[in-house]
Design goal:
By secondary structure, the chain is an all-alpha fold. The chain has 20 helices and no strands. The longest helix is centred in the middle third of the chain and has 31 residues. It starts with a helix and ends with a helix.
């Protein structure tokens, strides 16, 4: 199962970066305004929100195989729509296509939960981090293939900026086929099959309470009903804390990432240079996953989450201080931001996974990623006006302040747990 998930992530990773690399440039070109450059990222992150909701529900009802397969298929359809919109110069087709394309991004992230479905509790973070790592090859290769896919698009009579979406369509289609054909048995359904029935869990809890309070026969009856009622429900505070950890990393990271290609282009850098910077950023988002998973399992999720906030703040401050022509410093800032995002995503996901009953939380996982998409969409929408009003450095400083909120959140959660 893990091998199939890894293979699907390898090919789908190429589709993950198409919107990141050329989305803002497409908007600037087709809409004619830098202030509107964040709209594509907002749209495909909004589509990611809807995709996470739909795919999460499909996984809950049908299993991981049909849920993830459908998500990638929808993402491929959106990618084809973007290519058609650019070829026809139709903004009215571009905008909804970007929304549909976002389903592939959502599915790529939701696949990490499948890696943890059958993992032991003390190894969950490492299991989900392996699936995240698998997306690295395609995600890093994608931006560097921008010139090549642009040449391919030009040879077919399509504007070069549509090239990365051709690659996305192929990658998402391949992932959908792989998962639908080969993810057998379904990990989520198998995890459910291994669980005791809710009534059994309730009876066990009641027995444990009776042992703890000998002679209190009436207590057993009082305990069994709430236990049966609450069997399979997520523990709210844990889910909320994990969600906020991810949100406070996602919003500033997406805002910074959205406007960096526009900032570099405005300073005379071409798509090859922009693709390299984005590649480094994407690599940093996924490559540290095994180490992050190990640290989260060994040290706990909250210390790793606190480190993510500090590191993301430092990355945004470096981006604010970097001269517009300094590709090296901006690349370093985006790389640090990617590492910080990885720390926050893995630790936040670990908190959410630990708070959910095994095999019964796919809906909640989908809703958590809806929140992640909302944060990304918000960051993308605000990034364009922020740069228009105060410049790239102003945006980066705002991102630094937002990232710092992670640290007090984790300290409060640690005190509450103590």
């Amino acid at each position: 199962m893990l091998a199939v998930l890894v293979a699907s992530q390898l090919v789908s990773g190429a589709g993950l970066t198409a919107g990141v690399v050329v989305g803002a440039l497409l908007a600037e070109q087709m809409l004619g305004s830098t202030g509107l450059a964040g709209i594509p990222t907002a749209l495909f992150t909004g589509g990611s929100m809807l995709g996470a909701l739909v795919v999460g529900r499909l996984c809950q009802r049908r299993g991981r195989r049909p849920g993830l397969g459908a998500g990638y298929a929808i993402g491929a359809l959106g990618s084809v729509g973007v290519v058609a919109a650019v070829a026809l110069d139709q903004v009215a087709l571009l905008l909804p296509s970007l929304l549909v394309y976002g389903a592939g991004t959502a599915t790529n992230l939701l696949a990490r939960y499948a890696g943890a479905d059958l993992a032991a509790p003390h190894r969950r973070a490492r299991a989900l981090s392996r699936v995240l790592l698998a997306a690295t090859l395609g995600a890093v290769a994608g931006p560097n293939l921008v010139p090549l896919t642009g040449d391919l698009a030009r040879a077919w009579g399509i504007p070069p900026l549509a090239g990365p979406f051709l690659l996305a369509a192929a990658g998402y289609t391949a992932a959908a086929v792989l998962l639908t054909a080969l993810l057998r048995p379904d990990p989520l359904r198998l995890a459910r099959a291994r669980l005791p029935a809710p009534d059994t869990v309730a009876d066990a809890d009641a027995d444990a309470d009776a042992d703890a309070h000998p002679g209190g026969g009436s207590d057993t009856g009082d305990t069994a009903a709430p236990a049966r009622k609450n069997a399979g429900r997520p523990r709210g505070p844990g889910v909320a804390t994990g969600l906020w950890i991810m949100l406070l990393g996602q919003l500033p990271k997406v805002a910074l990432m959205t406007m960096t290609p526009v900032h570099l282009a405005a300073n005379g850098h071409g798509t090859g240079t922009i693709g390299l910077v984005v590649s480094l950023h994407i690599a940093a988002m996924f490559l540290p996953s095994p180490l992050t998973g190990l640290l989260t399992d060994r040290l706990g999720a909250l210390p790793v989450a606190a480190a993510s906030g500090v590191l993301l703040c430092a990355a945004a401050l470096l981006a604010a201080a970097a001269p517009g022509g300094s590709v090296l410093l901006i690349a370093a800032a985006l790389t640090l931001a990617g590492i910080a995002w990885n720390l926050g995503l893995v630790s936040g996901t670990a908190v959410i996974t630990a708070a959910l009953p095994p095999g019964r939380g796919a809906n909640t996982q989908g809703l958590a990623d809806v929140g992640l998409a909302v944060a990304g969409s918000t960051g993308a929408l605000l990034s364009g006006p922020a740069v228009t009003a105060g410049g790239y450095a102003t945006l980066a400083l705002a991102c630094a302040l937002t990232a710092l909120l992670v640290t007090p959140l984790t300290l409060r959660a640690a005190r509450a747990r103590a």
